[in-house]
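User: Here's a protein and a ligand (magnesium ion). What would the complex look like?
Assistant: Let me lay out the input and then the predicted complex.
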Amino acid sequence: MFLEKNVDLVLLDMDGTLLDLHYDSHFWLEFVPSQYALLHRLSIEQATTYVFEQYKTVWGTLPWYSYDYWTETLGLDIHHLQHANKHKIQWREDTLWFLKKLKKLGKKIVILTNAHPSGIALKDQQTQLLSHVDLAISSHEIGYEKESTFFWEAVKKQLNTDFSRSIFIDDSEKILVAAQSAGVEYLVGINKPDSEKPVQAMQNFSTITEFKEFFHPHYQLLK
Ligand SMILES: [Mg+2]
């Protein structure tokens, strides 16, 4: 079996990989603009246009993932607001089964996330996900986003690994590219990060919908 044989260290993204991205999509694309509209007495359309413009200026950089940045920029208490829809925080389909299986196989499991520590804490409160992994590293602790090669250099040092027996799973193709440049041996995309949206293929990486695909007798990861 592929994972049993080739991998010791399993590196996992959180939002859209372990957890359903629907919570985050709804929060940032709908709930935050709606709260901004209320605060400034704007129409939803006006508020959405403005908020999305702000998003675009920092997309894919550390501030984009920072609750403090958005609290300051939008004048909304993101740390507090994130609790409003917390019932939407859910595992993806077979994540829990997968984490238990990895533990049984004796793999080291590390979450690598761009999520703000405050977001990780809320998600852990809802799912207890941290109890199923060895470690979670936030890009906010490292000081660089996962899209950056500096992030991967820092993780390499912290985990004392050369990534030769490592797999990294993420729903962002851009981040998979960064991990590949850093020498992570096996890279896999998630093609259905958001339960409410259709499957999306990746151009340069092999993808899965559910983790159980790794354990199919004929599974092969093409590199
Ligand atoms: Mg993700």
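Summary: The mean pLDDT is 96.
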